[in-house]
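U., I forgot to send this yesterday:
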Amino acid sequence: MFMIEPNPNREMKVLLRGIRHNLGHVPPHFELFATINPTRFKMFLEEINYLTSHPNIQSDFFTFLRYTVASDNDFTYCINLNKSFLLAKEYTMAQLQSVEGTQKKLPLDERHQALFNAVMKAIYKPDSFTVEVINALKILDWTDADIFDAVDHGAFLFRFSKVLKAYSKD
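Result:
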């Protein structure tokens, strides 16, 4: 599966056990990440915890963002993980498919759709992510911190999918 056999240290095994308890399984890329760089893996988990309780952005937004970026980049592990999260929250396959392809439509409100569209611009066509885009989001009551958190997470997933594909044997 990966060029490096996952072999997490004792501390990471404890963290992964907690993930297994909460999710029912441990995604293979989590084990790899915990093996290669335990410090960064802990930072990643802290980031996910922060985003799931974000003060202004619905947590489902971030799950849809991960699902979409993973789908765009054929990042199977993340597609399946986030698909299972969204289906468990009773979103339908049609709603998941609505964020795939070129016409990405979130099953959330218009504010979140605008933020989502801006993130797609920022990570796929950074030159089109302009002051005007940011100002339009601010009119919708998004803060600079909200916009940064959304763009940062989208970019992280884009980068992470490339890194894990590089380590993949398949």
